[in-house]
Amino acid sequence: MVSPICPTCGCSLVRLGIERSTAPSYEHNGRRLLFCCQGCVELFAEDPERHLAEVADWIVCPTCLAEKPKALAVSITHRGQEIHFCRCPGCLEEFGRRPEELLARLAA
Ligand SMILES: [Zn+2]
Ligand SMILES: [Zn+2]
Fold first, then answer.
1. To bridge 60 with a disulfide, which of 12, 21, 27, 46 should be the other Cys (CB 3.0-4.6 Å)?
2. Which own/partner contact pairs does 18-24 have at CB distance under 8 Å and 24+ positions apart?
């Protein structure tokens, strides 16, 4: 499950309430990247590799929608899929109560 993170500012689009279909995008090395706003696209274009490297291993917690580097995350396997969470035990617990709903929200 990869939830888009704006590579420039590190905000997850789902947390900002921006849908994939309406997010500004930019083609880089054949990859279409999604951004939170046009300003972030312009900043990104000035130094793409630096911005990509900064958020390369970031994940979005499905419960609280916080963006974390993997070093600060924990993971579980849910229906054969690896899912990363922030370290908060409450987020894991909450996910256990309504996993499908939270995964659907993350994928939006
Ligand atoms: Zn941004
Ligand atoms: Zn969390």
1. 12
2. 19/108, 20/108
Residue 54 CA, ligand 1 centroid: distance in Å: 13
Q: Point out the ligand nearest to the CA of residue 24.
A: 1
Q: What is the dihedral of CA 14, 18, 21, 27, to 10 degrees?
A: -90
Number of domains in the chain: 1
Q: Is the residue at 39 inside a domain? A: yes
pLDDT digits (tens, 9 = 90+) for 72-86: 999 999 999 999 999
Looking at the CA of 85, name the nearest ligand: 2
Q: By residue range, what is the domain housing residue 30?
A: 13-107
- pTM, 2 dp: 0.90
